[in-house]
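Hello,

Our lab assistant flagged a job as stuck in the queue for most of the afternoon. It eventually completed. Since we weren't sure the result was trustworthy after the delay, we are filing this so someone can double-check. Below is the sequence as submitted and the structure that was eventually returned. Let us know if re-running is recommended.
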Amino acid sequence: NDRAKQQAEVYVYFKRFDDAEDLYRQMDRLDLGIGLRSRLGDWFKVERLVKETGGDDAALAVAWNKIGQYYSDRQKWAKAAQYYTQARNTSMLVQCFYQLEDFPGLVKLTEVLTEGQPLLADIGAKLQSVGLCADAVAAFLKANDTKAAIDCCVLLHQWDQALQLAQQYNYPQAEGLLQQYAGHLLEKQKYLEAVELYRKVRDAW
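-- returned structure --
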């Protein structure tokens, strides 16, 4: 066995990796083959070998994450998402879905994440960046970030929703934001809209 291991090391030295792996297989030491392929960064073969040994969940997750990174580095987001899904790497799935413009996918992730997880704020910001106000607000609120939810409404000109959230969550700074928007409307000579906004602010507070 030691002699076979030494022979395998010789194969590795001369970069005859397939021969080394075959020898490890004959020795019933696929763990050494997995170690070899891991050191080489050949994660596709690591995945195959781990499955041959019965599938260690932690080792498979490492391989799937590495393969996901391989595809994301090459901007093959759909393939990357496939492996990140298997690895349950929600953080990288967020990046993939955003690059794929799979916004329903981002919304689904919002639904499965538990309240208060920092990743929810990241999803909220991404949804906000493409104008999906209601979905972004839901993500921010689940992240327990009321300010970000209200700011999102203001930035996307959803003033009624901003006012509603400010009332619901007793958010005092919202009045100043709405007054600021009223000033903006006046500058644009949108007098009727400004009067309507002032009326809403007066009625709310």
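-- support follow-up --
The delay was a queue issue, not a problem with the job. The result is valid. The mean pLDDT is 90. Residues 57-73 form the longest helix (17 residues).
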